[in-house]
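Quick one, tokens below:
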């Protein structure tokens, strides 16, 4: 069942979802909700745009770690935390939760001012995680300094079973130098298996956008790439990305249909 308000939470151990998004409950309200998670079966916790800070994240970390002293036994499978006042301090408490709890497969922090320091903490904790499927870090105050840390996260890093296939980075300030660092991994299908990457509004010039277009052309795994709202997003870049995306999508479909290796099919059309 779903609950869209705090009043119905207490003593109901059958709840599976708590959705309080877009309500300014702040840390006080959020911490009360988090404290009520003990001995429940909550699977989804939605606190997006609730005016919470690092204090709430510290409380969440404590509750999860205190739950039978076994983080992997906790029931949470998805936490929505976007558009809040979570900084790198909160990420220090949050990142281990994501890395240690294999039920949590999505990192949803878009609109939180974690900055480059927060990105570094996430990278150090998540680079070897095989269970994370998507990472939402749009409008998080990331700059070109985060390029290498993003590259670490999207790299297969010797783990071919890594599930990460979608990364949202729109609305940051990665600039050309940042995407240049990312491209060193993104361009190589042997190093990167993500399927979708969003880089809109990142202050990219023609050089930066061209680098990303080349990545889509050289990595058949990429079937979705968005770089609009950058000054360098020319018609030429748009055409190159769209053409490569369509080819990659067709190859992926053929691979699934015929049971053939995507890489084998890609090498045949190169």
């Amino acid at each position: 069942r779903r609950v869209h308000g705090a009043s119905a939470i207490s003593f109901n151990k059958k709840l599976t979802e708590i959705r309080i998004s877009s309500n300014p409950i702040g840390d006080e309200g959020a911490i009360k909700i988090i404290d009520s998670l003990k001995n429940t079966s909550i699977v989804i916790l939605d606190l997006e745009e609730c005016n919470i800070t690092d204090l709430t994240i510290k409380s969440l970390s404590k509750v999860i770690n205190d739950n039978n002293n076994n983080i992997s036994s906790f029931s949470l499978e998805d936490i929505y935390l976007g558009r809040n006042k979570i900084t790198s301090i909160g990420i220090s408490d949050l990142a281990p939760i994501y890395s240690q709890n294999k039920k949590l497969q999505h990192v949803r922090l878009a609109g939180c001012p974690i900055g480059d320091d927060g990105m570094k903490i996430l990278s150090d904790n998540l680079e070897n995680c095989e269970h994370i499927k998507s990472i939402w870090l749009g409008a998080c105050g990331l700059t070109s300094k985060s390029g290498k840390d993003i590259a670490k996260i999207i790299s297969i890093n010797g783990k071919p079973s890594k599930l990460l296939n979608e990364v949202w980075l729109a609305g940051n300030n990665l600039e050309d130098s940042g995407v240049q660092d990312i491209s060193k991994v993104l361009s190589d299908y042997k190093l990167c298996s993500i399927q979708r990457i969003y880089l809109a509004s990142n202050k990219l010039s023609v050089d930066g956008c061209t680098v990303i277009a080349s990545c889509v052309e050289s990595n058949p795994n990429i079937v979705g790439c968005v770089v609009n709202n950058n000054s360098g997003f020319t018609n030429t870049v748009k055409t190159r990305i769209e053409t490569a995306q369509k080819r990659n999508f067709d190859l992926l479909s053929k691979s699934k249909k015929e049971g053939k290796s995507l890489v084998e099919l890609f090498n045949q059309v190169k």
